[in-house]
Amino acid sequence: MVIFTVCTLCLSCSDENESRELNMWIASHTETVTEPVGGVKRSCMMYKLDESANWMPLSSHIEGFQYEVGFEYVLLVRMTPIKKPMQDQSDVSYSLIRILSKKKNSLYFSESSSNLSSIEISEMVSTSGRLLAGF
Q1: Are strands 56-57 and 62-63 parallel, antiparallel or unpaired?
Q2: Per-residue pLDDT in tens (0 to 9) along the chain, 135 residues
Q3: Please, which residues have CB within 8 angstroms of residue 29's CB and are 6 or more apart in sequence?
Q4: What is the CA radius of gyration of the chain?
Q5: What are phi and psi of 97, to 5 degrees?
């Protein structure tokens, strides 16, 4: 019984430090964020780890993935914890296993969208900064 408990504890501890595969949703747009260290502004892909979650800026890149603005993706990625990240580095790294889905966002590719004025585009954006449904 003691050996079983010790083995279970060791396995549960090692799981936190090992890679795991997960699905990741990538938005068709990027957002400019300000780095917490140094205040540098940069463009970040927006991601979520659950389809119903809110979009968050991705602070690192995804090894092997070539992002194209205007496409929404569902990816299968390997997430690997970084044991001692640098001060301005993410504590996890991601590598692409496979692209599960890649869909065009019609806002970026429809002929009529190139004729919209900045006023019309800003009217399509909700107060939270997300596009309203149907656009």
Answers
A1: unpaired
A2: 444 433 444 444 445 679 999 999 999 999 998 877 778 888 999 999 999 999 999 988 999 999 999 999 999 999 999 888 776 677 788 999 999 999 998 877 655 444 443 333 333 333 334 443 333
A3: 46, 69, 105
A4: 19
A5: -100, -50
Report the alpha-carbon angle 90-55-103, nearest 5: 110
Sign of CA dihedral 113, 117, 119, 120: negative
d(CA 120, CA 113): 10
Give the list of residues 6+ apart from residue 70 with CB closer than 8 angstroms, or none: 28, 104, 105, 107, 108, 109
Q: What are phi and psi of 9, to 5 degrees?
A: -65, -40
pTM (global) more than 0.90: no
Beta-sheet pairing, 71-81 with 92-104: antiparallel
CA distance 118 to 130: 15
**Parallel, antiparallel, or unpaired: how do β-strands 92-104 and 62-63 relate?**
parallel
